[in-house]
Amino acid sequence: MDLYRAHSTLFGDVGDVYDGTLEHARAVIIPAPLEYSVCYGTGTAQGPAAILAASTQMDLYDEETDTVPAEHGISTLAMLDFDGLTHAEALERVQQAVAQVVAHGQLPMTLGGEHSLTAPCVRAVQAAHDAPLGVVQFDAHADLRDDYEGSPLSHACAMRRVLEIPHVALLEVGIRSISEGEIAELKAGTIAAKILWAHHLATGKADFAAALAELPERVYITIDVDGFDPGIMPATGTPDPGGLGWYGVMGMLRLIAATKQVVGCDIVELAPIPGLHAPDFLVAKLAYRLLGAIFQGRNGPHA
């Protein structure tokens, strides 16, 4: 199936600075309205459309870097269609889309949709390179369960499925909800992940730079928006108190881009609230500023 095709609504409304040509874009947005296993608040299927709509209202100048990231070329695929597909089939479609972007030598950014889409994104990236990969996860939840509510594909198992991919090391940032079973397996060494707890980040007891330095050169970034504090990100299925702030996350993302080769990324779990545009705009700007950091970083997708 050919999923590598332009979409009529371009992320960021970049027409004034880039013609939106898919083949020449440095980064490609993949809207993936996946919603199969959400277990509390619902609405992630509406996330990608809300992000695209909000992105058209952004100013394209980045005052922190004195750059216009859109000038590097950002294009948008058509919205992935999961109608009539099982959860496993939908995840396969996500993997196919990411693989096609990678095959064209471009940076894939997938906009969800629920967090279960991350493993197929990482598999697509790893299929092209048999080399170590660090995955940096910003999240309120560890998502390390082997199964949840009878499904190993649940969004609560997202990072467990990622760890099954060869040559992957995982750094989890901002975690503040984890089950007893996950903790037991971490302590027993059944699963391996480095966790920077939210309360340690808030009190200066966690060293993100040191943890990042331990990861391989190649890095994939996954951002569950519930990693942010619900004061600025209420539009998500499980808003958990004590989360991360905008500038803290942006600082960490810029450090990743400056010191590692970012080979792919996703932003997931936005569940738009009708009439409340701030969370949608936050995610749109987050995606844009992340791309800008990667474009400015020492190892962009064309390096």
Explain what this protein looks like in three dimensions:
The protein has nine helices and eight strands. The protein is an alpha/beta fold and 303 residues long. It has a single domain (11-296), classed as Ureohydrolase domain (Arginase, Chain A, 3-Layer(aba) Sandwich). Strands 2-1-3-8-7-4-5-6 form an eight-stranded parallel β-sheet, with helices on both faces. Strand 4 (133-138), helix 4 and strand 5 form a beta-alpha-beta unit. Helix 1 packs across helix 9 (278-296), helix 2 runs parallel beside helix 3 (118-127) and helix 8 runs parallel beside helix 9. It is globular and about 55 Å long. The two termini are 29 Å apart.
Which whole number gives the mean pLDDT? 94
CATH superfamily: Ureohydrolase domain
Shape: globular
CATH class: Alpha Beta
Q: Which structural class do the helices and strands define? A: alpha/beta
Number of domains: 1
Biggest β-sheet strands, sense, barrel: 8 strands, parallel
Order of helices and strands: EHEHEHEHEHEHHEHEH
Estimate the strand proportion.
15-25%
Task: Give the count of helical stretches.
Answer: 9
Summarize the structure.
The chain is an alpha/beta fold. The chain is 31% helix and 16% strand. The chain has one domain (11-296): Arginase, Chain A.
Feature tags:
single chain; 303 residues; alpha/beta; Arginase, Chain A; eight-stranded parallel β-sheet; 9 helices; 8 strands; 16% strand; disordered C terminus
